[in-house]
Automatic annotation (TrEMBL):
The lineage of its organism: Eukaryota, Metazoa, Ecdysozoa, Arthropoda, Hexapoda. It comes from Photinus pyralis. It comes from the Eukaryota. This is SAM domain-containing protein.
Amino acid sequence: MDYKKLLEAWGMSNYIEAFEDDGIDDESFPILDSETIAKLFPKSGPRLIFKKKYNEMFPTPATSKSFEVESSDLYNCSTPASVSTYTTNESIITDLDVSFVPDQELLDVIENIGNKVSEKRKIDDPLDNTPSCSKKQQTGLGDIDSVFPEGLERVLQKYTDGKLVLLNRNKLTNDLRQKLVKVAVNELFANKGSDIRGSTFMRIAEEITILFPNEKSETYYIPYIVTEKKKRGVGPKGKLWSRYTNVRTALRNANAFKENENPNKPSEQSQSPNKELQLEFLKTATEPYLKILANWQETYSLRRKLYLNSNLETIFTDFPCLRLSSGIELIETDFNQKFPDKIDIIYTTWPKVMNAINKEAAERNISIAEVADPSLKALITLPFLFQPVTLKKNRKGVSWRPTRVEVQESFFMRISNFDELQEKRSSRRQKLSTYGISDQPYACVAGNLEAVNNFYIVVVNDVVYKVDSSIRALELLFKLYHALDVEYPAESEHIWLFIQEIVFNIKSSKSSPATTALITDVQYHM
């Protein structure tokens, strides 16, 4: 039996690459279990179609186990999926969680645990299952082997955010999940410092599912995984992990500042040989993930100095780790070091800004399309709130005045399928080349705009990052521009300056009168 021909006959040839990446062959194909199928088909529609055809072909218990379809709510975290969903020569990157980290409360966390932070700066070992606490806590839900002395529920009851989470026990929104994780991780740092084992996150995730029966542990923590075929590690994921890594980064930055004030600190010159070795490692390594993350953080200053004026192609060629799923976290790590006070600001500001954009558009009678998701609607509409701009002449003395649609496609492109993406990319690159303009990263939404469960990606040359929502695409794009010190797309620079000031509260000397005027108009509705 040739399973590839079978997939082609079922109209699923674009999933063959996913099967190959997961080490599926003709021998293992007839014995697929539900967990494997869920991994191969992260989207519920294709998964259900495959299961129907598969059960007809192999009427065995292989797929008898049921698996739940995760909510496709815009702000919810995706279920685990580390494979691509269409066939291409490009790298398909999957982002599994929404990062939300240091805010004003983080300053209190740093102050409270400053003396507890280990100078060793030990990186978490997600494979270590050694329990850090064995005392079982008595709660209304039975015996729980909690990592907190008084149990998670009582920890939540100590804080306003925690009490709010408990009041909505039956159904948590993404905002409530953020509050839950913030309380849990802050308490964890305060009690244990920054040296926290992966098994601790697993146990917190399990306790969350007991306190909140409708929650899934995978939303909060997914441990380090090694794929069978390529033996390539996929780093830890989940809301607990995201909060932890970013708080830990903020703590390291605080410690680094203190060390810079220490006259006995070794000079940068004496540390450079080690940094050079770490940099050389990053130029070839794609695993192990934790070592890459540690070296990436340690070489931040050196990389910024060496690659300050480099283009994206050079950066992504020199560091193959950026092309992996963990590349998203590496990019965000750099942004966190550069803007430690802006790490999670988008999740506070964007909901207000998007509503104001939609109100301003309605006031101007601008209606682009029927869009179910208000966040996506704001992003698609935003370019049409600006007047077209003329770009400077190129070397041949030719100017270009992009249409609003061209501006929109340099910012947030709309496509119906991925064949259309290839066509638009090719056409766009050809036109940009004519005017001597580089093709910068942009976001893309695929699917029916009247539905909420669309497919979002961020395109960086030949690398495609898959993300779970429009706000996540906006966040990743902005952080990528600033973490890697690359310019905004020429056609939509004024839009990004608007986002920079009104969403991330970062002033720019390049702001135009048009950008300033729209900020004023939008802020009127906030």
